[in-house]
Amino acid sequence: AIWQKKYPELATPMHNKTWPEGNRIERNIIVTSKPNGNSLRYFVPMDSTVIADNIIWSTTGNLTVDYKVQELNKSMIGATWPQWLAQKVEQTSLMADPCVTISNKKMITCPTSAAKDIGFTPLPTDIGLIP
Predict the structure, then answer these.
(1) Model-level pTM?
(2) What is the DSSP string of 16-27?
(3) What are 8-29's pLDDT values in tens digits?
(4) Per residue in 77-100, is it b (16+ CB within 10 Å) or e — as a string?
């Protein structure tokens, strides 16, 4: 009842109980340092998922995405960024160096960071992912 009051959309019945619906992945900075460049793994329905305005970056210069678009039954392991964008699920996201530094649990962006272009705002430190 508490979650339904705060997040009423979570109480909406799903159309298909075998995959997630209604997810929004927006205004994130995603960085990978894996040698193979794997940064993202999406298994999503296209019609109810919003993936937009993210910055994606690989410190190794290689960036790959694993995906499965549920309605199309289309999938690929190790897709390049252009191959993933061609699926038209992710919208207006950028592959760019976010130019960030993390120090004392605070993230600082340089003046030229694309983080401002996507409307990024850091999570509060009491719920953030920074250790």
Answers:
(1) 0.78
(2) -TTS--S-EEES
(3) 877 777 777 777 778 888 999 9
(4) eebebeebeebebbeebbebebbb
